[in-house]
Amino acid sequence: MFFDPLAGHEVDTKTKSSRGVSRRAILSVLTAAGGGLLLGVSLPYLTGTADAASEDSFAPNAFIRIARDGQVTLVMNQVEMGQGTYTSMSMLVAEELEVDLAQIKLEHAPPDDKLYRNPRLGFQVTGGSTSVRAFWKPLRTAGAAARSMLISAAAATWEVETASCHALKGEVIHAPSGRRLAYGKLVDQASKLPVPDDVVLRDPKDFTLIGSSAKRTDAAAKVNGTAEFGIDTKVPDMKIATVAACPVIGGKLGDVDDSKATTVKGVIKVVRLDDAVAVIADHMGAARKGLQALVITWDRGPNATFSTADMALQLKEASTGPAAVAINRGDAVKAISASSRRVDAVYQLPLLAHAAMEPMNCTVHVRKDGCDVWVGTQVITRAQATAASVTGFPLDKVKVHNHLLGGGFGRRLDVDSITQAVQIAKQVDYPVKVIWTREEDTRHDVYRPYYYDKLSAGLDENGHPIAFSHRVTGSSVLARWLPPAFKDGLDRDAVEAGAGPYSFDNVLVDYVRQEPPAGLTTGWWRGVGVTHNAFMVEGFVDELAAAAGQDPVSYRRALLNNSPRAKAVLDLVAEKAGWDKPLPTGVGRGVSVVFGFGSYLAQVAEISIAKNGRVRVKRVVCAVDCGQMINPDTIKAQMEGGIIFGLSAALYGEITLKDGRVEQGNFDNYQVVRIDEAPTIEVHMIVSSEEPGGIGEPGTAAIAPAVANAIFALTGKRLRQLPIDAAQLKSG
C-alpha cells in the first residue's frame, strides 16, 4: 500500500484498479456540435474507494470527439507545463482508438469540476504527478469503446459479422473483402449505437505506441513560436499593468503620491488595492516607469522585524510540543532508549521559491454582463471561482481561457495573482494584462515551507537499526489548500516518505504544525513532502551506515527486503554508476533511494569540491521504476529536469527574511544551475507492468541527499541543512 496525500486515502497497488477509477469505466455518447461522435468518460467521485462508489455518483469526465472529417479531438482537462502530459495523454487514446498520434488534436477543457475533475484529487486540477496515473485507464477505455463502436458501425453498413472487421490507423477494414471505411464516414452511425458495457483493453504485449518514445506533440509550436502561453495573450484594446505589493509580509498599502507617475507617457491609470498598487499603461515599459515614479508609503504591519532566524527559532520551540502521529509501528521510543547505540540529528530546509520562467500573469476583461480571464493555471475552476467572487458574477458568467504554462512546479496551483488581476481589471472597462516582474514574483511567491526535523535511531551491536523516529515540524500546505484532507492535526503530505522506503521493526513518524506569520504563504513546490523528507531520511540513513561502518549501498539493501522495486532501482543505479569501482582523487560519490508519487528511483551523484568550497556535481546516474512507461523519452526528460531543479535548490535555493522582507529578487541572488554547471546525467529505466507512477516530481527529490552524501564521502563533513554552505567546505 502507498498513501497519496492529496487524495486522502490509500491505493492498493496489488489490484488492477486505481483509486478513483472503477474496474468498469462508464461511458456515454453525446451529440457533437456539427455532427460526429462525442464520447464521454465517467468516473466516480472521491467519496471512498472506487469499488464503493455508487452508480448515481458518476458524471462525465473527459471527452473524445471524432468529427466527420476524421479529426480526433481530445478535450484536455489536464494542462501542459513542460511535463509532456499532452503527448502522453494523447498516446493513451491513440493506442486503443487505433489512430496515429498526429491525428489527435487537443483542446483546453473549460472549467467544470463535475465534467473534468481529476479523479485522484477530486476536482479539475493538474498536480501531484497524477495526470497519467489518474487517466491511464479511463482514456484507454474511451479509446477502446470508440473503436468498438466504429467497428460495429462499419459491420452494420456492410452487413457482415463484427468479428470479421478490425481497425487500423483510423479506418475500419473488412478483412475478407478488403473493404475499408475511414472513421469520419462512420461517426454518424456510430453515435447512434449503445456504448458497450465492457471493452477489452489491449494487452501490454500488443502495445504499438505506449512504451515507445514519441515526439512531443507540443514541441514544434514551442520551437516556431506559435505556442500560446498566458503571457502571450493579446485581445483588442488590451492594456498592460504591473504591480508592487507591500514588501513586508502581511503589510498593507499606506499612502500613494502618483503625481509624477501620471505624467509618464503611456501611463493611463493608477489602481490602489489593499496591499498593493498597480499602474496601467499602453505597454510594459510605461507601466514599469510609472510604477517607479510612484512615491509609496507602506503600512509595514506586525512583521516589520521578522527574520529567518525568528522562523527557525519558532520551529525549534514548536518541535518539542504535541505531535500528530502518522506512522506508529512497534515502540520506537522504547526501542531507541534500550538500544546499544543511539544516533540523533536535526535537519533543516529553507523556504524555496518556484522561479518559473514565465512570471505570474493574467489578462482580465470585466464587462457589465460577464468576465473573461486568460491565464495559464493548474486549477482552472478555482480561477473561475475567484473571478466570480471578486466580480459578483455567477460562475456561468465567468469564462476562463486556459493556456500552456511556462513552468508551474506547483506555483500555479494558487490563484492569488488571478484574484489581484481581477481586482485591478474591475476598476476599468477594457481588458488588462497584469504582469508581475521577476522581483515581484520572487518576493511574493507561495513558498515551499521551512522544515525543522528531528530524527533518531537505535542500532544493535551490528549497526542495524532496530528503531527509527522522525518528527517533522513545519507549515501545513494541505490545511490551507485542501482543508478536508487535513485531519486530526496531521498533514499527510508533510510526512510522506517520512520513513523512506525502508523496513523498520519499530518506527514512529509524527508531525507538528507551525505556521509562519500571516502574509507569508506556503504552497506546493514540485513535490513538498517527498522533496524535503528525502533529504532528511536519506541523509540520516547515510549517517547510520557511517556509524555502523558499512557501505551506504549495502546498508540500504539490507533495509529494503520488503520493497523489491526499491531494491531493484538501488541495484541498478549502483551497477550503472560503477559503485564498486574506485574514483579519481578528489571525487566523492553519494547515493539516495526514494519512493514517491507511485514511482521508485535511486540516484548516485559524483562531486568534486574546489578550494573555495564550491561544489561541482560532475555526474548523476538515475535509475527509475515508474511502472508501465508511456513515453520513455518524456520520463528521461523529466528525470533530467527534476535533477537540475532539485540541484539548483541544493546548491543555491534559499529564501531568507530580514526586517519582514524577502531578501531575494532575481536570478542574481536566487540562483539556478547554469548550463556550464550542469552535470552529465544518465537515466536508466526499469521495464515494468505495474500501473504507471508519477514522473514530474520524483526526480527532484533524490538529488539533494545524493549530493550531500557524496560530500560526506569525500570530506567527512555531514551537511544537515541546505543550501550547501561553501564556507563549511573551504579548504586551506
From TrEMBL:
- Which InterPro entries does this one have? Ald_Oxase/Xan_DH_a/b, AldOxase/xan_DH_MoCoBD1, AldOxase/xan_DH_MoCoBD2, AldOxase/xan_DH_Mopterin-bd_sf, N-heterocyclic_Hydroxylase, OxRdtase_Mopterin-bd_su_IorB, TAT_signal
Q: One Pfam family for this entry, by name? A: MoCoBD_2
Give every Aldehyde oxidase/xanthine dehydrogenase a/b hammerhead domain span.
224-302
- Domain of life, per UniProt, equals Bacteria
Q: Which Gene3D superfamilies match?
A: Aldehyde oxidase/xanthine dehydrogenase, a/b hammerhead, Aldehyde oxidase/xanthine dehydrogenase, molybdopterin binding domain
Q: Which GO MF term does the entry hold, naming one?
A: oxidoreductase activity
- The name of this protein is Isoquinoline 1-oxidoreductase, beta subunit
Q: Write down the species.
A: Bradyrhizobium erythrophlei
